[in-house]
Amino acid sequence: MSHTLLIFIGLIMFSLAGMNSYLVTPMLQEDQDTLYQVSTIQNLSAGGYDGYLTLSQLKNQGDFGIGTFNRLDGEMIVLNNTVYQVKSNGTIVNPSDYEKIPFIMLTYFEAYNTTQVNDLNGSDLENSLNKTFPQSNIFYAIKIEGNFSHIKARSVPEQNPPYKNLSEVIKNQTVFEFNNTNGTIVGFWCPNNMGGINNPGFHFHFISQNKTEGGHVLEFAVDNATMQVDDTPKFYMNIPMNGF
Prior knowledge:
- With 244 residues, the chain is mainly beta.
- 10% of the residues lie in helices and 46% in strands.
- A hairpin with a 2-residue loop joins strand 5 and strand 6.
- It is globular.
- The relative contact order is 0.27.
């Protein structure tokens, strides 16, 4: 597997019969080694919450990922090619294919390394992972599946324009506490050289096995789980026209 970071930027063109209609620049279908991202974390953080691509347009870009929804309506988990939406009231639904997406990270998950993790808190696990990555300048997709002694997660409510920036929105986030729960943490590690495009470091979301608990992970502790890591050396970005 090549570890050369390739950055492709997909520009979105619009305007059809006087209405905004976005046409996605095609990319290679089912490329196992590519992280596909819609928008930048900087744009999202500044209030870029209006979705401009639908889930149906994103179907062929990955089976594993995280993101959010139009008007920042909850947290997204993509696991085994199924999309879950964790609402701010804690309910979890499968959104429509027509749901518009302002930000997403997607890849086809294909682990190169599998390890067993026992009795470890999130901070210690992240520190251990940092020391084992073969390369420090590429993305890694991470799946942790099993029993968690504790999960602290959040979701945010749908916003109305004019949008506040994300730091203000999360002041009204809903925080969930889950104990002794079975499920899967889905997430990514982003290299330092991608700051502004994405947040360097780890970004995790959680979905329980029974699909009743989930959200953006704030803290976690593993009881007994299997951890898989997928190195992702190629990167493709779809840039929004409604940038901040």
